[in-house]
Design brief:
Blueprint lengths: L2 H16 L3 H13 L4 H10 L2 H8 L5 H9 L3 E3 L2 E2 L12 E4 L7 H9 L9 E4 L4 E4 L14 H9 L1
Antiparallel strand pairs: 1-2, 1-3, 3-5, 4-5
């Protein structure tokens, strides 16, 4: 496979992992280029900060597509306000909690029992009694378990 093909494969892996369309991914890449620092790491940090990804990382969903659907259906509060935009970027200090109406659902009741053995990344904290999370700090490249080569993605878009 050519270098270009390998770069494309890495970009597609990243897109499918986070459930982002090409146009959104290009916007994230443009934003990552604007921010000072290493573009590849900035891209991963921006993708990790998406609300649907944070919901997944907190253990409220078993997959990113499921987390996206839960956010889209309006089950979460971000800093006390109902938010149904999965691509919303969280900041340091933001609080993510379940809406009161959503706590009566069967899914929530089973989640309460399963959440006890859930571990969360170091940049997040989880209150297992209230089933609420908080963003302690922005994720760093060390906090992200990367399954793809961000340098290849930067090379793909630099062409």
């Amino acid at each position: 496979m050519s270098d270009r093909g390998l770069q494309l494969r890495e970009k597609q892996k990243a897109r499918y992992t986070y459930g982002v369309l090409e146009r959104q991914f290009r916007k994230f890449f443009a934003e990552a280029e604007r921010i000072s620092g290493v573009t590849g790491e900035n891209l991963l940090v921006l993708l990790e900060r998406r609300l649907d990804n944070v919901v997944y990382r907190l253990g409220f969903a078993s997959s990113r597509p499921q987390a996206r659907q839960l956010v889209r259906h309006g089950h979460f509060l971000l800093n006390g306000r109902k938010t149904d935009i999965p691509s919303c970027l969280v900041k340091s200090g933001d609080a993510i909690a379940w809406r009161d109406r959503s706590t009566q659902s069967e899914y929530y009741k089973t989640l309460v029992q399963e959440i006890e053995d859930q571990t969360v990344p170091g940049w997040l904290t989880l209150d297992k009694q209230q089933l609420a999370g908080r963003v302690l700090a922005l994720p760093t490249s060390d906090d992200i378990e990367v399954k793809f080569d961000e340098k290849a993605i930067v090379e793909y878009y630099s062409r």
